[in-house]
């Protein structure tokens, strides 16, 4: 089940990472007139667009390609606004920028598409989490997956930029609902140390998805072809409706103990485990005293959860800026071939995920998260210092690999830590609410590299500072490993306590 639920991360990651290639800015120039068809592009640019490609020099009557090559063509000082452009497709093929001419006075629309997608992510985290806590993990997971597949295929047929933005908005909402419903269901199917292992395994597909997108973009340079190739595999996951169970923890929390029992018995038979004779009694002890309490956003701001929600809000904001700031701005780093750099930074994340498991099991949550975020910040600062001293891309890539390794580990540990800090009743809502701060961070990311207008080193320094601050905030939270080790019975409200306290009190 852990393996199958991890598969849901693939389509979501595909759609999040696609803009790295489908919205990549490339060199462009005002289109060459038909009567100058034999003129080399660079000579045409030098003659007609001395400032930028947004304005083109007015061509005198009778001008020829030969006169421009011979430097005998008259040069007029009058310019006019360019209406049609051609794009450099040597590294990236057709993109949404080239299809809808999102350059010059329309260049801001490029960021708008991703901002809208990330707004959807922010709303989807809260609303999707609330729906999942109310109606069940499995229903929302499969329902949102079906909608995701429909939207992905629908985006292939859009012919206007406005329609594309609308599809991306809903896609952001749906994608985050899928990935966190799968994550929460994965950790709720197990207990003890397996919560950590199942939670981390849920994120192994992320770097693999980055590699797949990078390789496929080489084979399918047209953004629509790439979109189709990455959308179809997600449809195959719909057959898992007949395989995946509902969360037994959620069923027990809703008072549906008989349904939970059937799932537990089926799991015991599959795993060749002995079914406890007092299973019915144990389930009744786990059954909540009242079934009237419904999940509510207000529960996140009551009692001990208020401090946790506030700290997690800041920690998620900082981590998201650091992780996606490096991931989605690879093209802005100008480190040689985009595909090669993308694959290198994806590969380094695989051991980062693997090493997270023993670290979480042995060292707890707070200190590893703090150290990994601090290391990411130091690596970003080092990359900027080396860029001023060395003119070698591989030195910078090495620094970024260290930073990506560190923040990649944080990206695995933070969702598990967050899930453990909220009870079953509002766990998906709590994990989803963290996506509000993550969504705000994601909205800022498309504009992060605009800070280079003030100073070329400012984007990376900003990532470093926020990473360090976010790591410090985590130190204010309780370490759930100590909570899980507690043997004291819990008689508090379902709105208090951590993962194991609130769910495993029968043990």
Automatic annotation (TrEMBL):
Superkingdom of the organism of origin: Eukaryota
Chief site of localization: membrane
Signal sequence extent: 1-15
Coiled-coil residue windows: none
Bilayer-spanning residue ranges: 115-133, 140-158, 164-187, 194-220, 226-244, 305-326, 338-360, 367-388, 394-417, 429-449, 461-478
Cross-referenced InterPro entries: MFS_dom, MFS_sugar_transport-like, MFS_trans_sf, Sugar_transporter_CS
A Pfam family assignment: Sugar_tr
UniProt keyword annotations, A-Z: Membrane, Signal, Transmembrane, Transmembrane helix
Disordered: region residues: 486-507
SUPFAM superfamilies named among the record's database cross-references: MFS general substrate transporter
One term of GO molecular function: transmembrane transporter activity
Keyword presence, Membrane: yes
Topology in the lipid bilayer: Multi-pass membrane protein
CC per GO annotation: membrane
Cellular localization per UniProt: Membrane
Compositionally biased intervals (Polar residues): 486-495
Major facilitator superfamily (MFS) profile domain span: 63-482
PANTHER family, per database record: SOLUTE CARRIER FAMILY 22 MEMBER
Protein name as annotated: Major facilitator superfamily (MFS) profile domain-containing protein
Species this chain originates from: Parnassius mnemosyne (clouded apollo)
């Amino acid at each position: 089940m852990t393996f199958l639920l991890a598969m849901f991360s693939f389509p979501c990651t595909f759609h999040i990472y696609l803009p790295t290639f489908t919205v990549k800015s490339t060199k462009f120039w005002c289109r060459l007139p038909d009567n100058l068809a034999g003129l080399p592009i660079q000579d045409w640019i030098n003659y007609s667009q001395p400032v930028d490609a947004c304005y083109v020099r007015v061509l005198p009557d009778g001008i020829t390609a030969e006169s421009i090559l011979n430097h005998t063509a008259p040069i007029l000082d009058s310019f006019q606004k360019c209406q049609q452009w051609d794009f450099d497709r040597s590294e990236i093929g057709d993109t949404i920028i080239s299809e809808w001419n999102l350059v010059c006075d329309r260049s801001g629309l490029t960021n708008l598409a991703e901002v809208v997608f990330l707004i959807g992510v922010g709303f989807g985290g809260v609303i999707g989490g609330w729906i999942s806590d109310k109606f069940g993990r499995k229903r929302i997971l499969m329902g949102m997956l079906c909608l995701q597949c429909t939207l992905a295929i629908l985006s292939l047929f859009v012919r206007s930029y406005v329609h594309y933005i609308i599809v991306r908005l809903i896609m952001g909402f749906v994608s985050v609902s899928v990935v966190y419903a799968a994550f929460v269901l994965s950790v709720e199917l197990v207990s003890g140390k397996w919560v950590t292992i199942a939670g981390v395994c849920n994120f192994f597909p992320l770097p693999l998805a980055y590699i797949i997108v990078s390789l496929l973009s080489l084979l399918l340079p047209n953004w629509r072809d790439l979109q189709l190739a990455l959308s179809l595999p997600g449809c195959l996951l719909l057959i898992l409706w007949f395989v995946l169970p509902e969360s037994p923890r959620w069923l027990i929390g809703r008072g549906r103990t008989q349904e939970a029992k059937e799932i537990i018995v089926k799991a015991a038979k599959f795993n060749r485990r002995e079914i406890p004779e007092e299973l019915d009694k144990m389930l009744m002890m786990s059954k909540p005293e009242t079934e009237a309490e419904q999940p509510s956003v207000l529960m996140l701001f009551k009692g001990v959860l208020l401090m946790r929600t506030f700290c997690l809000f800041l920690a998620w904001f900082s981590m998201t800026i650091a992780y996606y700031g490096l991931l989605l701005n690879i093209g802005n780093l100008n480190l040689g071939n985009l595909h090669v750099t993308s694959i290198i930074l994806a590969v380094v994340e695989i051991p980062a995920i693997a090493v997270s498991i023993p670290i979480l099991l042995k060292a707890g949550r707070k200190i590893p998260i703090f150290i990994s975020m601090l290391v990411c910040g130091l690596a970003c600062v080092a990359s900027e210092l080396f860029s001023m001293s060395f003119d070698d891309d591989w030195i910078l890539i090495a620094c970024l690999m260290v930073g990506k390794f560190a923040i990649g580990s944080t990206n695995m540990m933070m969702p598990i830590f967050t899930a453990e800090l909220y009870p079953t009743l509002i766990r998906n809502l709590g994990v989803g609410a963290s996506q509000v701060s993550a969504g705000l961070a994601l909205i800022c990311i498309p504009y992060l590299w605009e800070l280079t207008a003030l100073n070329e080193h400012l984007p990376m320094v900003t990532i470093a500072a926020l990473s360090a601050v976010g790591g410090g905030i985590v130190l204010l939270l309780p370490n759930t490993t100590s909570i899980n080790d507690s043997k004291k019975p819990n008689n508090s409200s379902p709105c208090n306590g951590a993962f194991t306290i609130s769910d495993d009190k029968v043990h």
